[in-house]
Amino acid sequence: MSSVILNKIKLSVFGESHGNGIGCVIDGLPAGVKLDFDKIYKDMARRAPGKDLTSTPRLEKDIPNVISGVLNDTTTGAPLAMIIENTNTQSGDYSNLMTVPRPSHSDYPAYIKYNGYNDIRGGGHFSGRLTAPIVFAGAVAKQVLMQKGITVGAHIKQIGSIKDTAFDMNNISADELNTLASKSFSAINAEAELAMRAEIEKFRLEQDSVGGIIECAAVGLPVGLGGNMFDTVESTLAPILFGIPAVKGVQFGLGFDFADKNASQVNDEYEVKDERVTLLSNNNGGVLGGMTDGAPLVFSVVIKPTPSISKPQRSVNLQTMKNETLIIRGRHDPCIVARAVPVVEAAAALGILDLMM
Amino acid sequence: MSSVILNKIKLSVFGESHGNGIGCVIDGLPAGVKLDFDKIYKDMARRAPGKDLTSTPRLEKDIPNVISGVLNDTTTGAPLAMIIENTNTQSGDYSNLMTVPRPSHSDYPAYIKYNGYNDIRGGGHFSGRLTAPIVFAGAVAKQVLMQKGITVGAHIKQIGSIKDTAFDMNNISADELNTLASKSFSAINAEAELAMRAEIEKFRLEQDSVGGIIECAAVGLPVGLGGNMFDTVESTLAPILFGIPAVKGVQFGLGFDFADKNASQVNDEYEVKDERVTLLSNNNGGVLGGMTDGAPLVFSVVIKPTPSISKPQRSVNLQTMKNETLIIRGRHDPCIVARAVPVVEAAAALGILDLMM
Amino acid sequence: MSSVILNKIKLSVFGESHGNGIGCVIDGLPAGVKLDFDKIYKDMARRAPGKDLTSTPRLEKDIPNVISGVLNDTTTGAPLAMIIENTNTQSGDYSNLMTVPRPSHSDYPAYIKYNGYNDIRGGGHFSGRLTAPIVFAGAVAKQVLMQKGITVGAHIKQIGSIKDTAFDMNNISADELNTLASKSFSAINAEAELAMRAEIEKFRLEQDSVGGIIECAAVGLPVGLGGNMFDTVESTLAPILFGIPAVKGVQFGLGFDFADKNASQVNDEYEVKDERVTLLSNNNGGVLGGMTDGAPLVFSVVIKPTPSISKPQRSVNLQTMKNETLIIRGRHDPCIVARAVPVVEAAAALGILDLMM
Amino acid sequence: MSSVILNKIKLSVFGESHGNGIGCVIDGLPAGVKLDFDKIYKDMARRAPGKDLTSTPRLEKDIPNVISGVLNDTTTGAPLAMIIENTNTQSGDYSNLMTVPRPSHSDYPAYIKYNGYNDIRGGGHFSGRLTAPIVFAGAVAKQVLMQKGITVGAHIKQIGSIKDTAFDMNNISADELNTLASKSFSAINAEAELAMRAEIEKFRLEQDSVGGIIECAAVGLPVGLGGNMFDTVESTLAPILFGIPAVKGVQFGLGFDFADKNASQVNDEYEVKDERVTLLSNNNGGVLGGMTDGAPLVFSVVIKPTPSISKPQRSVNLQTMKNETLIIRGRHDPCIVARAVPVVEAAAALGILDLMM
Questions:
Q1: Nearest by Cα to D240 from D125, D354, D81
Q2: Which end of chain C is less packed: N or C, by CB atoms within 10 Å?
Q3: What is the ipTM of this complex?
Q4: What angle do CA B261, B266, B271 make, to 5 degrees?
C-alpha cells in the first residue's frame, strides 16, 4: 500500500482531491541542476483541465509551491518537496459516507480496502488530480535528463476510431519530441488532430466518454541502460505508468502487434553507419533484453474511457445492499487522453532518470 | 542492475545458460506450507523444451535441487533456495568473444553494458533458460495461494493469425484454470489448438518463428488487494512479467481494446446477487484503481517471435566494425508461446503472493 | 542519497533549516486510526528548543499542518503528509557560500558531496531541526501502536558523568514509559535529574557542550516480531536511529557491556510463570536472533556533544585553502540529549510499527 | 522476514545449519572484476572453526562452489551465486521438535514465529554457520573495493577484561589493515593477543564463554560517501552488522564514549596539510552528518558471549509447559570473537561497496 516508487531516486506522491493539498517529494536528485520553472508550469498547464471543450470546464489553479530542495532555482541535493494547496476545500466535518460506488472507478474496492475510512470526496487519493504532482516531478526529471542530452515526448496515437500518424520508430528527433511536448493537444498529424477533436466532441454531446492510446518516445539514451532480469527498462517504466489512473496496458515497440508477426519480418537487423552500430528498424522500441539498444525508446499506453459519465448506470447501495440506479452529476472529461500526455511523459522521464542515476 | 524482485517476498534469480547452474532464492515465504513437489515438477516440465515439434528438440533435464527452506516437504520460513545444475557444461577456459550480435537479442546492448565480460554462451543470464527458476518459484507460490483459495491459470490466446476462444472474463472457474494449467499446450478450444499447432509448424518449416499472446487469470482473490498509487496490482505484476524474455506488452482486461471503446459500452456496472456485490461485466480485468474488485483478475502479455532463426540476417562484426551476414545454426523454437504459459502463470502467482503477504 | 526509510510503511522526510518549510510523508499507514493531535503536539513540544536553560533560547513555533491522509482526525489510508512552514525565512537571493566548515558538523563532507550547491543556512537538510518531522511521524506511529497495546518511552540514561537510574530491563511497565514520555526532561530519578541539569549548566557557562546516552524501551510487543537475517528488530531500528543527527552508537540490552561478561552471568534463562514462558533476566534487551522474545525491548543510543560551541576552533577556508580560526556566534544547545529523547522514541515507534505491519 | 539486504547491490543469504547447503547470491556486482579466489578462501578459513583451542574443534570443510556470475575468474555482471554443500547431513525424516529452548538463543522466539516449522537442527537459518556466505560475499566485495583503492580490516579490541591496543583512529594505513586481515587471531598488540588467548582458555576450562569487541576500519574512501538522512554510512552498515548473530551494539568513532565528553575535547578540527583538508583528530570515526569526511572510517561492534555453554541452565519445556534444567552437550566456542572478525570485515566491505555503486 504505497504511493512511493522508484529506486535510486524516490518519488513520494501525497494528497487527496478535496483535502488540504496535493504534492510530492522527489528524493535523490543530483545537486546543482538549474531548473527552469516556466517549463515546469507549462507541463502542468498541459495537464490542467478547462483548456477547451475536450476536457472538463472545472478550473484548477495549481500553483506548485516548492518547499525544499531548491535554492536560487537550483537543486540542493536535498529532497525536493512541492505542495499545491487545494484552495476550494470546505471546512467543517464531512460525512464520509460512500453509498453507491461509481462503476469502473476505485470506489468499491477502496471502500472494502479502507473499511470506509478513505476520503472519497472527488476520488480522494485515487483522483486523477493526483497526476499533477507526477507531472511536476516529471518536468523536473526532464530538465535533469536534458543536461544529459536526453529528450522525452509523446503524442496521442489514437482516440476512439481515429489514429494519428505513428512515430517513425527508428527515426525520431529531439526537435520532434520537443514540439509535441509543447502542445496542449499533442498530435503529429494536423488533420488527425481535427478528427480526434471531433470524435471527442461527439462523445461529449452523447454524455459519454472515449478511450485512446498515447505513444511516447525518448532519444539520446546511452546503449546498455537497464539490464539484468528485473531491473530492466520495461520493469522500471511499467509500474510508474500503471500508477497513472486509467492506464490499462503498456507495450514497447510493436507491442501487441508482435503477436501475428514472424521473426524474419520484425527482427531489428544491424549495420555499421558512420563507424557506429545502428539498427535497420526499431520494432523492439529501443529495448532488447531489457536494455536500451541505441534506437529511440518507444512505448505506448492505453487509456480507458473516463468512467464518470452522466448516463444512468446500474450500481448498488453498499449500506442497504440494494440495487440502485446511479446518475453522476457535474461535468466530466469526455476524453482524458490529451491531458494524460504530459503525465505519460513525466512517468517516462522519472523512470529514465532512475535508470540513469 | 538487478535480478531480484518483489517486496514482501523477494525472488532472486541467478545463473547463466552454460554456466554451472541456474536457480533462485525465494525469501519471505510463510513457514508451515506443505509442498507437493510432483506438481512443481509438472509445471517445470510444461516449460521444458523438446516436448514436441512446436518447440526446440534440445533436451533439458532440469532437476531442481532444493538447498534450504524446506524440511519434510514443508516450508521452514527460511529462504527457499533451489539450484538446477547444468550437466552439459564443458570445463576449461572459454574464449568469451562476441563478434556478431544476433538481431533482436540482448547480445549487442549486453556487450556494451558489460564491456564484453558477460557470459554470452547461450545468451548467458539473458537466456530463456533462466525462466526455469521462475517457474519453480511460481509453482511454490501457487501452492501457498491454493491454501488461501486462489487459483491461477493461463492459455494461449493467439499465435500468429490464429486465436483461441478468449476467457469469459466475468465467469472463470478454478476448475477451468486448473485444467489449463495442467496442459503442455494450453488452449481452451481444441480446434484452435490444432490450427495454432499448424501455424507453428508452418513457420518451423520456413525456418522462421512466430509470436503470440498469453491470457492469464486468477480467481479467489479478496476484494481490495493492491492499492494506493504505485503499489497496485498492475504495478506489482508488470515488472515481473516484463522480466520474462520476449514479453513486449502487458495489459489488463480489455487492455489496448479500450482505445476505441466508450464508457457506456465498457463500464463494469454492479448488482447485488446472493447478498453480495457482483460485477455485471469484467472489462477491467478485475482491477479498479489498482485494487482487486472481486471479479477474476485477467491480464494478457504479448510474446514476440523468437529472434533466433536460421535465415540469413544482416548484422555487424563488433571487433572489425564491418557489416556481416549472420546465419544462426542449430535448431530453434519456432514459437516460444506454449512454453511461456507456465512462466506467465508463475509470474502472476508470485506477484499475487507478494500482494497477499 | 535518500531521506526515505522503512519498508512496509515508508517515511519520507524533507526540508531545509532555513528554507520554506520542513515536513514528512508517512506512506502505508492503516486506515481508520483516530489520532489525538494534542498528544502529537506535546511530543513536538518536548523536542522544541527554548524550554529552559538546558537548551537553546531560539524560539520555534512549529505548527504541523496536515495536508493529507487524515479526515475527521482519522487516518484515511492515503499517505499522511505534514508540513511545518518556516516563518522566519528571508526572501531574496542568498549567497550560498560555505567558506569555513564547522568542526564535527556535516559542513565539509556536504560541501564536497553536493559540490557547493547544498543549502548550508542553519545546516540545511542536515539540521537537527529536521528531527521535528520525525517526532511528528513517531507520535502518529505511537498512537497506531497504542491501539495494539504497545507503549514506547525513553529516558536520559547519562549526561556527562551523571547517570540516571537505569531501566530494570525485565520489569518495565507501560505506565512508567508513559510517565517518562510526558516529561520535557525525561529522567527516572529526580536527584539524577537535578545533577544532570547542573552538569549541563556547567558546560553552558563554559561555552562548551556535553554528550549523553538515551535508553528507550517498548512493552506489549508480541513474541517473534522481526526475524530472519537482515529483517531483524535491530536491523530495522538501527538505520532510523542512526538517521538522527549526533547519534554515534546503538546497542541493545547490555550492549557494549557484554564485552567483559561471560555467558553464565548474562544468559537470559526461562521459567514458566502463570502458564506463560517468561525470562528470568533481560540482558538481551528483549531481542534474540533478531526477534522479540516477550521481554521489554530495551536499547540505548549515544548522543555526541553538540559540535556548535562558542570557543575558538581550528578550521580551514575552503576557498583560499588557508588555515583559519573559527568562532561560531549565536547561542547553542549546551546539551541536545533531553530534546533528543522524543526523537529516539519516535524512531523506535516508527521502526516497531514497520515490523508490525 | 528477509535475508536479503543492501540497495544497489543486493545480498541474499540462504541455508540452514544442517540442511543441504548454505550460500548466497550477490546481485548487482560490476562486470569485469578479476577475482583472486585464494584470498577468498583465506578469509573463509579465518572464520572456520577448529583452528585452535580458542574455537570449537568441529571441522567444517566449507568449499564454496560458484554457480554463476564468474567466468574465467572474472565477474560477468550477472548475479554471483555460491553454494557450500553440507556434506555431513543425515538423510531420512527428522522429528523437528523443539522442546527446551536454549537460553539467549533464537530458539524460543523462532518457535513462536515459525509455529514450530523452522529447521531447528543446529540453529537452522539462525546458525552462526550462515556467516560463511557473508564472509564469502565480503571477500568478493573487498576485491572490488581494492580496485578502487579501498582497504578494510579489523582487530579484536577487547575480550573479557583484556584490551588490545586501539586503532590510532586518525592514522591507519592500508598495510596495517591488510596485516590484520591476514591473521586468524587479529590483534595489534602481541602481548594483548597472548592475554586474550589466556582469557579465552580460562573460560573454556570453566565450560563458560566470554564476549568481546571488534574494531574495524576502512581507508581510501572518498569524501562525501553516504549522505542525506537515512542513506548514511551508519544506516547502511548498521543493519548488515546487526544481521551478524551475537552482535548487540554498533558504534562509530568514540561511540558510547562520547557520553561523558565535551565538545571542546572531542570536536575534530581541520587544517590544511599538503594543500589538502585534513582532520586533526578522528573521534567521529570518519563519518560526519552520515558522510565520509576523509579520515579513516572506524567503527566497533560488541559480540555477546556465546550462549551455548555446558553448565546447567534453567529453561522450560514448550510442550509440557514445565520448568526444566537444560544441559547443552557437545563442544562449543568459548569465544566467538576471533572468528567473527572476518565477518565484520565482510559486512563492512559489502556496505561500503553498496555506498560506492
A1: D354
A2: C
A3: 0.95
A4: 170
